[in-house]
Amino acid sequence: MYDYYLGGKDHYVVDAEAAEQVLEHTPDARRFAHANRLFMHRAVRVLTREHGVRQFLDIGTGVPTEPNLHQVAQAEAAECRVFYADNDPIVLAHARALLRGTPEGRIAYVQADVREPKSILESYEARNTLDFDRPIALSLCALMHFVPDEHGAYEVVGELVDALPSGSFLVLSHGTTDFDPEGMARTQDVYVRAGIPIQLRSKARIARFFDGLELLPPGLAVTHRWHPEPDQPLADLTDAQAGFYGGVARKP
């Protein structure tokens, strides 16, 4: 469905049908997806340029959509290492075919579920790609709203962050009910009927994912307002049209 919102071609008819149902209730869903994607790009650039980050762990990768995280990171620093994880076997097939990086850097991928952090953190691929003695940026973009509270959403993020060394970062974006509670409630119903667990959260509840971390300015913000760049696409969006909060925080 996310690929459909982004205008991609790697989805099934059932995905397109469900996405169209979402668009009936939330016409800005495509803008949500695009604004979220651009937030991820800017966060990666800020971390590589201003904080010297050279390692990224991206969970909930989705079907590769150019530019993907490794392309953004390695355009800034060719030696960047990027490790991807997703629970969708279709993503695995695409990743193997499409994820190619620089000779100086390294890219790897594992099929795993964020609700089982050890399956990611202790995988051979992760340990062979990332140096857990050096800072790592953990990217959880547009993912944690698919992990309801009863599935241990906050505990999952806590376990992932705990495994990272001091000086690492959490990049997280999350859909919210703050701007259109009724429309987003209907949108949640579409996902649930399609068999997809989802829990959109308020800003205060999203902020809990960053507990114990040091948020970078401007803090937790609507995605298009986080480090906007000159002449960036979608700069004229309203907060309701962006629909997601995003933030980047450092682990002390």
TrEMBL record:
Pfam families: Methyltransf_19. Keywords: Methyltransferase, Transferase. It comes from the Bacteria. One of its GO terms (biological process) is methylation. InterPro entries: SAM-dependent_MTases_sf, SAM_dep_MeTrfase_SAV2177_type. GO terms for molecular function: methyltransferase activity. This is SAM-dependent methyltransferase.
